[in-house]
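Regression test attached.
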Amino acid sequence: MQPSDSSQSGDRDFITCCRERGIKPTHQRTEIYRALMAREDHPNAETLYAAVKERVPTISLDTVYRTLRLFEEKGLVARVSTAGDSMRFDGNINRHHHFVCVQCHKVRDFYDDDFDRLKTPQTISRLGEIDSVHVELRGVCNDCQRQKRKKT
Amino acid sequence: MQPSDSSQSGDRDFITCCRERGIKPTHQRTEIYRALMAREDHPNAETLYAAVKERVPTISLDTVYRTLRLFEEKGLVARVSTAGDSMRFDGNINRHHHFVCVQCHKVRDFYDDDFDRLKTPQTISRLGEIDSVHVELRGVCNDCQRQKRKKT
DNA sequence: TCGCACATAGTAATAATTACTATCTGCGAA
DNA sequence: TTCGCAGATAGTAATTATTACTATGTGCGA
């Protein structure tokens, strides 16, 4: 284990989280969780696999998939809804919303009280019980707009 | 072609749509479009393939995928954001929102003026240009709740 | 120290999606 | 009408993403 005070405390949180949910905080799981938390870009399993491999060279892709599924089941991480491409994960389980770039598929988190306070219309309450509200803003991120301008 | 007045007029619309976007309204494409529009449940390619096969027995799965990609590119249909499972399509390209059942993954459309009027916060405008706002309500639909109650 | 339950690595299997190629079809020009 | 061409399709192969399987490994309590 590398010396790192901040990650140490992060690990301690993770261990507590696991205890609460009755899952074992193994070395591999700790590293997968850490790798996910270290990113803002909602990576997929393959990307996390590559990242974790740096620190745990023997880890297998299956373990990454299996662990992410477990984490999701236990509410430690969330899947990001995407249109088509591979499944992606979000370490941020606080209430938040997403800005999705339709060009490069980058997903950025953001917070907004107005969105959180949205009241669900009557017609929907009739369809079922609503647990959460997620707002997805779609558009073109600054990076992609810059590239578009270059091309023209 | 089966006799059906309502579908005839629908076809005419489809043909107009295609002309506008410079794509050929072939028999297969017409049937795929019709099959998608006939459903409320945001089917995937495989499901549409099965449905279209009834009317065009020789159609190939590739054609369905290819056609749906084309339709999406041309803005005739939209992909539905899903968490993990196969990609699904929506023939409704009017502004609307989704209620997603976290158990059975059914997706239901709904309309709401309040949601449509949502103003995007300043912090996000800085991330890029926003084209559209989609609200996703997650919960358990009535059918699934009934089943849960049965089990207990 | 032993035994057991759970985790993991490595790989095989499955499922979803895309690519390839030969054939087909409709349309405009001769 | 016939010819030639561009685009579309069917059938299948290839690729990619995800899950399943199995033998081995590991930590922990008795």
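Expected vs. actual: identical. Chain A touches chain B at residues 79-84, 87, 99, 101-102, 108, 110, 112, 114-115, 118-121, 123-124, 126-142, 144-145 (CB under 8 Å).
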